[in-house]
Protein backbone atom coordinates (compact mmCIF):
# COMPACT_ATOMS: atom_id res chain seq x y z
CA UNK A 1 0.00 0.00 0.00
CA UNK A 2 2.81 2.33 0.95
CA UNK A 3 4.71 1.62 -2.24
CA UNK A 4 1.61 2.24 -4.39
CA UNK A 5 0.93 5.60 -2.72
CA UNK A 6 4.59 6.61 -3.12
CA UNK A 7 4.53 5.61 -6.75
CA UNK A 8 1.46 7.73 -7.51
CA UNK A 9 2.94 10.72 -5.73
CA UNK A 10 6.14 10.37 -7.73
CA UNK A 11 4.20 10.14 -10.99
CA UNK A 12 2.09 13.18 -10.06
CA UNK A 13 5.14 15.18 -9.13
CA UNK A 14 6.87 14.30 -12.39
CA UNK A 15 3.76 15.26 -14.36
CA UNK A 16 3.55 18.62 -12.55
CA UNK A 17 7.26 19.25 -13.20
CA UNK A 18 6.85 18.42 -16.89
CA UNK A 19 3.88 20.78 -17.14
CA UNK A 20 5.82 23.61 -15.49
CA UNK A 21 8.79 23.06 -17.84
CA UNK A 22 6.46 23.11 -20.86
CA UNK A 23 4.77 26.31 -19.69
CA UNK A 24 8.16 27.98 -19.05
CA UNK A 25 9.44 26.91 -22.48
CA UNK A 26 6.29 28.21 -24.17
CA UNK A 27 6.50 31.59 -22.41
CA UNK A 28 10.24 31.86 -23.23
CA UNK A 29 9.59 31.06 -26.91
CA UNK A 30 6.83 33.68 -27.16
CA UNK A 31 9.12 36.24 -25.48
CA UNK A 32 11.93 35.52 -27.95
CA UNK A 33 9.57 35.90 -30.88
CA UNK A 34 8.12 39.17 -29.64
CA UNK A 35 11.39 40.60 -28.28
CA UNK A 36 14.24 38.89 -30.13
CA UNK A 37 17.74 39.45 -28.79
CA UNK A 38 21.00 37.60 -28.57
CA UNK A 39 21.94 36.39 -25.12
CA UNK A 40 25.22 37.76 -23.78
CA UNK A 41 28.10 35.28 -23.85
CA UNK A 42 25.88 32.71 -25.57
CA UNK A 43 28.10 30.41 -27.62
CA UNK A 44 25.08 29.27 -29.62
CA UNK A 45 23.97 32.77 -30.57
CA UNK A 46 24.13 33.44 -34.31
CA UNK A 47 25.79 36.82 -35.04
CA UNK A 48 23.72 39.11 -37.23
CA UNK A 49 25.69 41.18 -39.74
CA UNK A 50 24.31 44.67 -40.18
CA UNK A 51 24.71 45.70 -43.83
CA UNK A 52 24.74 49.47 -44.32
CA UNK A 53 23.26 50.86 -47.55
CA UNK A 54 25.98 51.62 -50.07
CA UNK A 55 26.49 55.34 -50.61
CA UNK A 56 26.49 56.73 -54.12
CA UNK A 57 29.83 58.14 -55.35
CA UNK A 58 28.35 61.64 -55.19
CA UNK A 59 27.05 61.29 -51.62
CA UNK A 60 30.55 60.47 -50.36
CA UNK A 61 32.12 63.67 -51.76
CA UNK A 62 32.58 66.97 -49.91
CA UNK A 63 31.62 68.92 -53.03
CA UNK A 64 30.37 68.04 -56.50
CA UNK A 65 31.62 69.47 -59.79
CA UNK A 66 29.39 69.16 -62.85
CA UNK A 67 30.57 69.27 -66.46
CA UNK A 68 27.98 69.17 -69.24
CA UNK A 69 28.20 68.77 -72.99
CA UNK A 70 25.96 68.07 -75.93
CA UNK A 71 23.18 69.87 -77.74
CA UNK A 72 20.50 72.48 -77.10
CA UNK A 73 18.83 70.45 -74.33
CA UNK A 74 21.98 70.64 -72.23
CA UNK A 75 22.32 74.31 -73.22
CA UNK A 76 18.82 74.84 -71.78
CA UNK A 77 17.05 76.15 -74.88
CA UNK A 78 13.39 76.77 -74.04
CA UNK A 79 13.86 77.47 -70.33
CA UNK A 80 13.22 81.18 -69.90
CA UNK A 81 14.83 81.07 -66.45
CA UNK A 82 18.13 80.17 -68.14
CA UNK A 83 18.82 77.22 -65.82
CA UNK A 84 17.81 74.29 -68.02
CA UNK A 85 18.08 70.78 -66.61
CA UNK A 86 21.77 71.32 -65.77
CA UNK A 87 21.12 74.28 -63.48
CA UNK A 88 18.10 72.62 -61.90
CA UNK A 89 20.06 69.41 -61.31
CA UNK A 90 22.70 71.48 -59.50
CA UNK A 91 20.08 73.08 -57.26
CA UNK A 92 18.31 69.82 -56.44
CA UNK A 93 21.57 68.02 -55.61
CA UNK A 94 22.56 70.85 -53.26
CA UNK A 95 19.20 70.65 -51.50
CA UNK A 96 19.07 66.89 -51.20
CA UNK A 97 22.72 66.11 -50.43
CA UNK A 98 23.39 69.21 -48.35
CA UNK A 99 26.74 70.04 -49.95
CA UNK A 100 28.05 72.59 -52.46
CA UNK A 101 27.55 71.74 -56.13
CA UNK A 102 29.31 73.68 -58.89
CA UNK A 103 28.87 73.77 -62.67
CA UNK A 104 32.50 73.69 -63.71
CA UNK A 105 31.72 74.03 -67.42
CA UNK A 106 28.83 73.60 -69.84
CA UNK A 107 30.14 72.97 -73.35
CA UNK A 108 26.75 72.30 -74.95
CA UNK A 109 25.93 74.10 -78.20
CA UNK A 110 22.43 74.24 -79.72
CA UNK A 111 22.11 72.27 -82.95
CA UNK A 112 24.97 69.91 -82.19
CA UNK A 113 24.77 66.38 -83.54
CA UNK A 114 26.92 63.44 -82.52
CA UNK A 115 29.65 64.29 -85.03
CA UNK A 116 29.72 67.91 -83.80
CA UNK A 117 30.37 66.75 -80.25
CA UNK A 118 33.23 64.52 -81.42
CA UNK A 119 34.78 67.35 -83.45
CA UNK A 120 34.46 69.75 -80.53
CA UNK A 121 36.20 67.29 -78.21
CA UNK A 122 39.04 67.03 -80.72
CA UNK A 123 39.34 70.78 -81.23
CA UNK A 124 39.10 71.99 -77.61
CA UNK A 125 41.60 70.57 -75.16
CA UNK A 126 39.83 72.24 -72.24
CA UNK A 127 36.86 69.89 -72.74
CA UNK A 128 39.01 66.88 -71.89
CA UNK A 129 40.62 68.71 -68.99
CA UNK A 130 37.25 69.69 -67.52
CA UNK A 131 35.78 66.23 -68.01
CA UNK A 132 38.71 64.68 -66.13
CA UNK A 133 38.00 66.97 -63.15
CA UNK A 134 34.25 66.34 -62.98
CA UNK A 135 32.32 64.34 -60.39
CA UNK A 136 29.14 64.34 -62.49
CA UNK A 137 29.05 64.53 -66.30
CA UNK A 138 25.74 65.35 -68.00
CA UNK A 139 25.19 64.70 -71.71
CA UNK A 140 22.40 65.00 -74.27
CA UNK A 141 22.98 64.23 -77.93
CA UNK A 142 21.16 62.33 -80.67
CA UNK A 143 17.92 64.28 -80.98
CA UNK A 144 19.28 66.44 -83.80
CA UNK A 145 20.70 63.37 -85.53
CA UNK A 146 17.26 61.75 -85.66
CA UNK A 147 14.89 64.70 -85.92
CA UNK A 148 17.02 67.60 -87.22
CA UNK A 149 14.58 70.02 -85.62
CA UNK A 150 11.76 68.47 -87.64
CA UNK A 151 13.43 68.79 -91.04
CA UNK A 152 13.09 65.59 -93.02
CA UNK A 153 11.05 63.76 -90.42
CA UNK A 154 7.82 65.69 -90.84
CA UNK A 155 5.72 64.42 -93.70
CA UNK A 156 6.39 66.11 -97.03
CA UNK A 157 3.13 64.91 -98.62
CA UNK A 158 1.32 68.09 -97.71
CA UNK A 159 -0.36 66.50 -94.72
CA UNK A 160 0.86 67.33 -91.26
CA UNK A 161 2.32 64.21 -89.76
CA UNK A 162 5.41 62.35 -88.67
CA UNK A 163 7.63 60.27 -90.94
CA UNK A 164 9.60 57.82 -88.77
CA UNK A 165 11.44 56.30 -91.74
CA UNK A 166 13.69 59.35 -92.10
CA UNK A 167 14.72 59.10 -88.45
CA UNK A 168 15.28 55.34 -88.71
CA UNK A 169 17.65 55.80 -91.65
CA UNK A 170 19.87 58.16 -89.65
CA UNK A 171 20.04 55.97 -86.59
CA UNK A 172 22.83 53.38 -87.25
CA UNK A 173 25.63 55.85 -87.99
CA UNK A 174 24.52 58.22 -85.24
CA UNK A 175 24.59 55.37 -82.69
CA UNK A 176 28.13 54.49 -83.74
CA UNK A 177 29.15 58.05 -83.02
CA UNK A 178 27.28 58.02 -79.69
CA UNK A 179 29.29 54.95 -78.76
CA UNK A 180 32.52 56.81 -79.56
CA UNK A 181 31.45 59.78 -77.42
CA UNK A 182 30.53 57.66 -74.39
CA UNK A 183 33.71 55.61 -74.71
CA UNK A 184 35.89 58.71 -74.82
CA UNK A 185 34.15 60.37 -71.89
CA UNK A 186 34.33 57.20 -69.78
CA UNK A 187 38.06 56.83 -70.49
CA UNK A 188 38.76 60.49 -69.73
CA UNK A 189 37.13 60.08 -66.32
CA UNK A 190 36.50 56.49 -65.18
CA UNK A 191 35.48 57.59 -61.66
CA UNK A 192 32.89 60.27 -62.46
CA UNK A 193 29.19 59.48 -62.68
CA UNK A 194 28.21 59.96 -66.34
CA UNK A 195 24.51 60.52 -67.03
CA UNK A 196 23.37 60.23 -70.64
CA UNK A 197 19.90 61.75 -70.91
CA UNK A 198 17.74 59.66 -73.23
CA UNK A 199 15.49 60.95 -76.01
CA UNK A 200 11.78 61.69 -76.00
CA UNK A 201 9.39 62.04 -78.96
CA UNK A 202 8.69 65.77 -79.50
CA UNK A 203 6.31 65.21 -82.43
CA UNK A 204 3.98 62.75 -80.74
CA UNK A 205 0.89 64.88 -81.41
CA UNK A 206 1.73 64.74 -85.15
CA UNK A 207 2.16 60.98 -85.04
CA UNK A 208 -1.32 59.40 -84.68
CA UNK A 209 0.04 55.89 -85.24
CA UNK A 210 2.68 56.52 -82.55
CA UNK A 211 5.36 55.00 -84.78
CA UNK A 212 7.95 57.52 -83.63
CA UNK A 213 7.76 56.16 -80.09
CA UNK A 214 9.21 52.88 -81.37
CA UNK A 215 12.01 54.77 -83.13
CA UNK A 216 12.87 56.67 -79.95
CA UNK A 217 12.76 53.48 -77.88
CA UNK A 218 15.12 51.74 -80.31
CA UNK A 219 17.58 54.60 -79.84
CA UNK A 220 17.25 54.57 -76.07
CA UNK A 221 17.60 50.77 -75.91
CA UNK A 222 20.76 50.92 -78.01
CA UNK A 223 22.13 53.73 -75.78
CA UNK A 224 21.43 51.61 -72.70
CA UNK A 225 23.27 48.66 -74.27
CA UNK A 226 26.31 50.87 -74.91
CA UNK A 227 26.22 52.43 -71.44
CA UNK A 228 25.91 49.02 -69.79
CA UNK A 229 29.51 48.25 -70.78
CA UNK A 230 30.78 50.99 -68.48
CA UNK A 231 30.23 50.82 -64.70
CA UNK A 232 30.04 54.60 -64.32
CA UNK A 233 27.56 55.43 -67.11
CA UNK A 234 23.81 55.57 -66.55
CA UNK A 235 21.02 56.28 -69.04
CA UNK A 236 18.32 58.64 -67.77
CA UNK A 237 14.96 57.80 -69.39
CA UNK A 238 12.81 60.81 -70.31
CA UNK A 239 10.31 59.53 -72.88
CA UNK A 240 7.65 58.80 -70.26
CA UNK A 241 7.99 62.30 -68.80
CA UNK A 242 6.53 63.88 -71.94
CA UNK A 243 4.35 61.16 -73.43
CA UNK A 244 1.03 62.03 -71.76
CA UNK A 245 1.42 65.81 -71.38
CA UNK A 246 3.48 66.86 -74.36
CA UNK A 247 2.01 70.35 -74.71
CA UNK A 248 2.37 71.07 -71.01
CA UNK A 249 6.13 70.43 -70.90
CA UNK A 250 7.34 71.64 -74.31
CA UNK A 251 8.44 75.16 -75.24
CA UNK A 252 6.63 77.07 -77.96
CA UNK A 253 9.04 75.77 -80.60
CA UNK A 254 7.42 72.32 -80.21
CA UNK A 255 10.80 70.66 -79.80
CA UNK A 256 12.59 71.71 -76.60
CA UNK A 257 11.30 71.36 -73.03
CA UNK A 258 10.06 74.43 -71.20
CA UNK A 259 11.10 75.23 -67.62
CA UNK A 260 8.72 72.62 -66.18
CA UNK A 261 9.89 70.01 -68.68
CA UNK A 262 13.52 70.60 -67.74
CA UNK A 263 12.61 70.35 -64.07
CA UNK A 264 11.14 66.87 -64.66
CA UNK A 265 14.38 65.82 -66.35
CA UNK A 266 16.44 67.22 -63.46
CA UNK A 267 14.30 65.37 -60.92
CA UNK A 268 14.83 62.10 -62.80
CA UNK A 269 18.61 62.65 -62.97
CA UNK A 270 18.86 63.35 -59.23
CA UNK A 271 16.76 60.26 -58.42
CA UNK A 272 19.22 58.11 -60.35
CA UNK A 273 22.60 59.59 -59.42
CA UNK A 274 22.27 60.73 -55.79
What does this structure look like?
The protein is built from eleven helices and five strands; from the N terminus they run αβααβααβααβαβααα. With 274 residues, the chain is an alpha/beta fold. Strands 2-1-3-4-5 form a five-stranded parallel beta sheet, with helices on both faces. The chain is globular and about 100 Å long. 34% of the residues are buried. About 5% of the residues have low confidence.
Largest sheet: 5 strands, parallel
Oligomeric assembly:
single chain
Low-confidence region ranges: 38-46, 156-160
Described by the principal axes of the CA atoms, the overall outline is globular
Rg, alpha carbons: 31 Å
- Secondary-structure-based class equals alpha/beta
Strand content: 5-15%
Could you give the count of β-strands? Answer: 5
Give the strand line-up of the largest sheet: 2-1-3-4-5
- Element string (H = helix, E = strand): HEHHEHHEHHEHEHHH
Question: Roughly how many Å apart are the termini?
Answer: 85 Å
| Relative helix content | 40-55%
| Number of helices in the DSSP assignment | 11
How would you state the average pLDDT, rounded? 84
Amino acid sequence: MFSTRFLWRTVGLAALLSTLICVFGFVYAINQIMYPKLAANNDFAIPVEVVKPKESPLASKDKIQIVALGDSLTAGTGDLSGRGYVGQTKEKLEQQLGKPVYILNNFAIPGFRTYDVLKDMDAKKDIGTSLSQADLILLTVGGNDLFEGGQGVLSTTGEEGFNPKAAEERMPEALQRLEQILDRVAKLNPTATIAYVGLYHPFLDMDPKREGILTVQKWNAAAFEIAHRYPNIVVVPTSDLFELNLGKYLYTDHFHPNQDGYERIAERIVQIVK
